[in-house]
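Regression check, D-glutamic acid case 292:
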Amino acid sequence: MGDPEGVIGVFDSGIGGLSVLKALCAEMPHERFIYWADSGFAPYGERTDEFIIARSRAITEQLLAKGPIKAMVVACNTATAVAIESLRTHYPLLPFIGVEPALKPALAQTQTGLVGVVSTQGTLNSARFDKLMKTVVAEALPKQGHFVLQACKGLALAIEKQTEKSFNDTAEVADLCAKYVQGMGSFGQASGQIDTLVLGCTHYIFVQDILQKLVGAEVRLISTGEAVAKQTKRLITPRTEVPLTQTHSSKTAKTELWTTGALSALQSAALRWLDLPPEHCHQAAAQSFSPP
Ligand code: DGL
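Current build output:
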């Protein structure tokens, strides 16, 4: 689907979607990507639906203005939950691939029947998430499963802020993780304990080590990056050009990143998580955007 020589657009409210971009690059090493971190307007998880839909459209316009886009990956659970239908209606010729909390694989894997889900308030409150949860539970029958939902207010923003400061300053992030994990109940493999934790926000992959320590090594953490990358690969028409060899320079030459927030924050995150040098990151010009 789409112009084979086009670029794959990827966006998130900030740096969280870099975890998805990493999986996309690994799955499709010969494709070109353009990433938009909307950090100047983050966090989405605590915004209105109207705001998120308007930003998602504005970002799509910005990326389309930079050249042919053959598919758009909404690398944000909150924007997928709230805006993907509107995007699909507005741009009927452009394929949109979204990310959703991995409830189905989590329910398939749980032994205790208790699955924790950490996500933003926006995702958990959405009609799309409610529908997903009901469908997954119905499809798993006769296996019984129960989801323990935890909205992690402030965590995505704290992860963003941490990128702007020193990477060693993890106090706020660690405190929030501890607070939210404790709020969910007991983790482990005994009956009545949560044995599987779904990371329902793309930012949370970057704190998975902290979360894993808090819940214990035997609890399984599930994210969606790889599944989304595989789904994107199924949907696109691959590039026809001779594949680049997998040297460092060829890998970085095909990825361009933009931010509405602090350029230095995107640069450190891109270097840290994707091994991408700073020259691939760009400052998006301040746009006139009136929040709805
Ligand atoms: N990374 C986003 C998500 O997956 C949103 C975080 C936020 O901006 O609140 O939901």
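Comparison notes: The chain has two domains: 7-99+226-283, 103-223. Residues 12-14, 16, 42-45, 76-78, 120, 123, 156, 201-203 surround D-glutamic acid (CB under 6 Å). No diff flagged against the previous build.
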